[in-house]
Design goal:
Shape: elongated
Structural class: alpha+beta
CATH architecture of the largest domain: Orthogonal Bundle
Strand order of the largest sheet: 3-1-2-4
Number of strands: 4
CATH superfamily of the largest domain: Homeodomain-like
Helix content: 40-55%
Length: 193
């Protein structure tokens, strides 16, 4: 990428529109240089001469700057956001951060996500975190106070409260119930051949 093109992206330079498009590998979205979204890291940027090239490379058009002139369907947009959440649930994911990542407004993202998924983005993030916490409680010996931060819930009291709200059990009770239901290993000692 040339310094001139990078400056156009950072400055949201409308005079560069039509000369090139840029895509962001981490989000899967491509934009016009004039897009008002937060500038990506230079190492995550891929440049294209035409919008069709970005589409052929399986990047999706930005909801904010509409580089193809058409609007991204709501289902595709929300699919992009849920894929991002599924890959990054352990990070700090606020509605503002998700809106910025997906090139939409927080209000529009919240409303559209709920319409498409039946839950808000925050509820989806919480479900994903608790789902992963259940897996870790059942499948590892990690301490409860380590599992919360591992799934993006660094506050132990909040993690316990949210886990209990979602499952009906505290994390320790969930682990105890799960471990007590697993079959015990049977010893072959004393058996004759």
């Amino acid at each position: 990428m040339t310094e001139e093109k990078w400056r156009a992206i950072v400055a949201n330079d409308a005079s560069a529109d039509g000369r090139f498009f840029y895509a962001v590998k981490t989000t899967g979205i491509f934009c016009r240089p004039s897009c008002k979204s937060k500038p990506p890291k230079p190492g995550n940027v891929v440049l294209f001469g035409k919008a069709e090239e970005a589409l052929a490379a399986r990047f999706r058009p930005c909801k904010r700057c509409k580089p193809t002139g058409r609007r991204l369907p709501d289902e595709e947009w929300i699919s992009l956001v849920t894929e991002y959440i599924d890959r990054h649930y352990e990070e700090s994911l606020t509605l503002d951060a998700l809106a910025e990542m997906s090139h939409g407004s927080p209000y529009h993202l919240h409303r559209t996500f709920k319409k498409v998924k039946g839950v808000t983005p925050v509820e989806y993030v919480q479900r994903r975190r608790i789902e992963r916490a259940r897996e870790l409680l059942a499948g590892t010996d990690r301490a409860v106070n380590e599992i919360g931060p591992a799934v993006g819930l660094p506050s132990l009291p909040y993690f316990i409260t949210l886990f209990k709200k979602r499952t009906g059990l505290t994390p320790a009770a969930y682990r105890e119930r799960h471990v007590s239901r697993q079959p015990k290993e049977v010893s072959n000692y004393g058996e004759s051949n």
